[in-house]
Amino acid sequence: MDFTFPKEYELLRRMIRDFVQNEVAPLAKRLDAEEYFPAETVRKAAQLGLMGVPFPQEYGGVGAGETGYCILMEELGKVCTSTAAVIGAHIGIGTMAIYLDGTPAQKKKYLRPLASGEKLAAFALTEADAGSDAAAIRTRAVRDGDVFVLNGTKHYITNGPQCDVATVMAVTDPALGARGGITAFIVEMEWPGCSVGSLEDKMGIRGSGTSELVFQDVRVPKENVLGQFGAGFVTFMKTLDLGRVSLGAACLGGAEAALEKSIQWAKTRAQFGQPIAQQQAIQWMIADMATEIEALRSIIYRTAWMVDTGQPFARMAAMCKLYGSEVSSRCISKAVQIYGGMGYSRDIEVERMFRDARIAEIFEGTNEIQRIVIASDIFRGEGLRISP
Amino acid sequence: MDFTLNDEQRMFAKMFADFCEKEVAPLAEETDHEEKPPLQQLEAASEQGFLGATFPEAYDGAELDTLSYILLLEEIGKYCVSTALTLNVHVALAGMSILRHGSDEQKEKYLPALAAGEMIGAFALSEPAAGSDPSALRTSAVRNDGHYILNGNKLWVTNAGIGHLMVVFARTMVDGEDRGVSAFLVETDAPGVKVGYREKTMGLRGVTTNAVYFDDCRVPADALLGEAGKGLGIALSALDFSRIGLSAICLGAAEFAVDAGAKFATERIQFGAPIGTKGAIQNLIADSATEVEAMRYLVYRTAWLAGENGRTTEESAIAKLFCSEAAMRVANRIVQVHGGYGYMKDYPIERIYRDLRAMEIIEGTSQIQRWIIAGKRLAAHGLKL
After folding, report:
1. Residues A29, A179: Cα–Cα separation, whole Å
2. What is the pLDDT of residues A327-376, one digit of tens each?
3. Structural domain range at position B166
4. Is A59 in contact with A112 (CB distance < 8 Å)?
5. What percentage of chain B exceeds 90 in pLDDT?
6. In this predicted complex, what is the ipTM?
7. Running DSSP on this structure, what letter comes out for residue A118?
8. Level-2 CATH architecture, domain A234-380
């Protein structure tokens, strides 16, 4: 057992920290207040290779694997959840699907510009009537010679308004359903028939764009079928499994920032003639936060190591997302409480963090779905199959 | 024991429900979205006599019993926490302080004006360095030539932005000597008063919460409310009462949330069936409904006790602590029932979630409520905190 990070990861973290402090932190408030999309941050991240951190260098990435990617998300999560959502949706699900299941030709054509950050990706699975029940999607792709004709509307798509490329799940055989009837496609948003639908007005992560993607008679060449025809369900499940680890890492960053801010505030805020840190009510909140953060850190980097060393990790990934999102919400709520009235003011960062954190319990599979994933994996070992 | 509302209370409850559906519910979204003070709602409330809900008829009040007042706040809280909180600060913190501690002249001068909505009341206690610890307040009131001269900065003065009359707490100085905290009635347009920065808040966006600055503000000696040096007692007794109202607002919002969650779970189909057929969702609804009923009887009982006994320091702290935390748990669960929809501004639960987060902080944080409760219980055994 060795729980230290290798030197190259320490260097990567240092580089990311500098980037985050210089380029991300100064814009965080504006992103939230003005629903401002961080286009120039994305451009600067691309210059450092950060838009492709986990992907091999031959495709324009950094080759830092899941561990390196978790470091990026943790550091981003500390200062700006909106930016973490934008980069996370790009790397962790949009581009990841192409990395996992793309052919060499697809990787050359799409992974390279995406990993180098020339283009921005989105992952288009959810529909108005298909959220937790992802297999209920209705977007259709019908074969017409050498193309598939795509029709349908995707919902709640992170990076929807800004993306150049979307990995889109569509029904290719309604009779087969989830197993064999859904196919993944790589779609370029500038193709005729692709458009951005209505934008969402959200509680938090207001700097990341969330919208519908509308596909109307979009002609997708058959070379853009991603993964095996009919195996789109497998593609998106694999992709989401990985996305959950890094989402947990972003939550870890949010929780750590909440703890750090709480400590600083508790040291300086005086009431009853002494710093509030002298009150046990405050001490207990700090101690509980610190404890949960260490537990979270351990499962995140252990799971990243499992990914990087080729071990099965689906159950652990669900735990990263479930525990990460709940720990960050609990820690940030405690930070709001420690700040008192100040914590409710939009002039103070913990207020934004509180609103931003709430989505992590919902998106990329609600926590109810994570619990089902974990329980069904456990009971599968016992020979019992669980239906959702 | 009798857990039923009497005929009059039932009639009031029906009337409050009709009022809220007509006058409060339709404005809730724009109140939040545009950060618009609920003036239109207050005007409608004044026509019904709600702005003087608990004042005696002699002062043009509606003379509601405490439980009926609580039913009113519960009902408004269902639809618009901003409006309910604004009303409670006006009635319970400003109005009731005057009713309980004011001279006949002060009551005659201000209570009918407050009841009619000609004046809106505010409560100025917190300061930058005096939040949980109000005894640390530094605003001074120097006695001089039959007047008091106020200097200092107040923070988070609810209703200051729309109010006309503030109950202001300041340290009284007589001949250079600190005589303790006193309460003063100060009109917001008095010379030397400046209503400053309006806080940009997570929720409660219809509520105006401002800084207020006093710069050599000269008020006559008869602006003193109650006895000099007894200001903290006035503040704490006002908070004992208003915390019951705040608890009722939490109850109303949580009730609305459970109902909205049950409706959504019935209509939203996933995996071929309403999500309400899933145990995971049922648990969220069931735990929330259970906590709402616990809140309800805690609030009603505390209101009844306040009507019987007057002072309910410990009971109000228990009600406020439990209701604010339980309502937040309920709102959190119902956001979860809504899934992605719960995070968007199109459904009221997104607003309710932000609104309710304030309740664990304002009018005494949860930590202060616990301290009050533990203090009372330990004092019963001779340990003083």
Report:
1. 44
2. 999 999 999 999 999 999 999 999 999 999 999 999 999 999 999 999 99
3. 123-228
4. yes
5. 95
6. 0.87
7. S
8. Up-down Bundle (1.20)
